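Fold sample X.
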Amino acid sequence: MHTIWKGSISFGLVNIPIKLHAATEDKDIKLRTLHKECHSPIKYEKVCPVCEVEVKPEDIVKAYEYTKGKYVVLENDDLDKLKKENEDRAVEIIDFVKMEQIDPIYFDKTYFMSPHEGGSKAYSLLRKALQDSQKVGIARMIIRSKEQLGVIRVYENTLVMETIHYPDEVRKAADVPNVPAEDKVTDRELDTAILLIDQLTTEFEPGKYIDEYRNALLELIEAKRTGQEVVTPAAPKEAASNVTDLMAALQASIDRTKPEKAEKAHAPKKRAAVKTKKRA
């Protein structure tokens, strides 16, 4: 697994040399843009709209637009010095909190953390302490020239760091338009909705969720690559009912999920049989 950063975790006087590894990967299918006539990849050139010339990398500077059309130019030396001063800082755990106190809206990206040379024992100590205390560490660090706030927690048998947004990066829910101020629903509607939720409630099994669009796109690409002219699309899902009556829609949903719940009731037995067969 590729190492993207090396440093150390510190809390109190404890210091743990660690390495970061990306815990997730982008599986999006990247499509290139080609010239329709000759199928050559299209180039995107940096051009100055005033001078009407292509700009070379060495002629580009970074700047902050503090008001419309007015900029503060930042020299590379200034940025490099600032970057060097901050990169020397380690991953510092500043607080320990309960995981459930952090709303998921704050979470950004996940990294696996592995012990660097000489850090195995301290790594194990932090992992065990987090497990037994049922808490997570709130840490501050510099990754790729940006100061990050993160959560250090245990995932399976590995320490992971979840980078999280700063409070001022999360927009206020109160600013979302057209959100009803109060719940204008009847007791009967609420009871029926809860019944529907109960019928659809199950154990979280990540493996059963797939990217259907990506799979269909890969099938289309493979069909075209092998010269197939006819592509059979996946069977369309049942269209949502255009029922305007809320109770009728809820009842129809409950009726539709009853067979699914009956099938799920037999699923554990089938899985157990498969596992027994494999062990034999």
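Fold sample Y, listed below.
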Amino acid sequence: MRLFLVLLFAPLLLVGQPVRPTADNIAKHVNYLASDRMKGRGTGSRENDKAARYVIKQFKKLKLAPLGTDGYRQPFTAKVRRVVVPDSIRPANNVIGFLNNDAPYTIVIGAHFDHLGMGNQGSSKDPKPQGQIHNGADDNASGVAGLLELARYFSRNGVKEPYNFLFIAFGAEELGLVGSRHFVNNPTLPLNQINFMLNMDMIGRYNPERGVGVGGFGTSAEWPEVFKGVQGEVKFFTDRAGSGGSDHGSFYAKQIPVLFFHTGGHDDYHMPTDDPGKVDTRAEAGILDIEIKLIENAMKLPKLNFTEVK
């Protein structure tokens, strides 16, 4: 009898659990992806593939449908510009999960999961980077943690939203947005069905004096209405630009409205010192709450119109 009651009320207990982003969950993802054993998640490395498998495992837990070209994966190749050996072509992947709400349009949420590896592929700011683990906790384990927390929220909030969601962990961003460019040129969902794209790249080092920057404000005339009245525990400011050095730029180039969340540069950027303990997980949870409010506001509107930023 006791077992019967537990089974009967189990769904109610699950509904009662918090589904909003938490600092503990963010820390779990960042600590795993940016640990020394991941060796910086360089494109083409075993550890980069291990990071892809980690994202796939989380997508499966959330019962997201695979929407790559090989299950959850969308394989492609990327040129690794190495410092100490000639250029080489390496295998890479985007990892793509779909939350189907039977809606005509889809919101894309993305973050790149690669980083600089052991300092041999270029872009390090360290004067002697070779052989040093570049953990990439802020850049961009923090963004992947945000991606997974938003996937958890929208898949478990008990609401069938009026838009579908496509969650993409992009590969080879550090080599020139290679993964996101591959996706928009080889989309696994028609681009004309995408409402907008929200990108998270380096959202783990919140500075309360600066606030979190939100780019892409000029890419749709509807964004001011979406942002109206939105507040939270963290402060933010907007920027009109839609292009830029992260994966949202690939979508903007295809005339898709974008938002880009970024907490700003710091001395650990592209350095071996970008470690998990420096990520402000509590503030990141606050940033994700802002994102949820904006996404929910946007879902009250029809598909957004694209505006080119002059």
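Sample Y note: The domain at 26-298 is CATH 3.40.630.10 (Aminopeptidase).
Also: The chain has one domain: 26-298.
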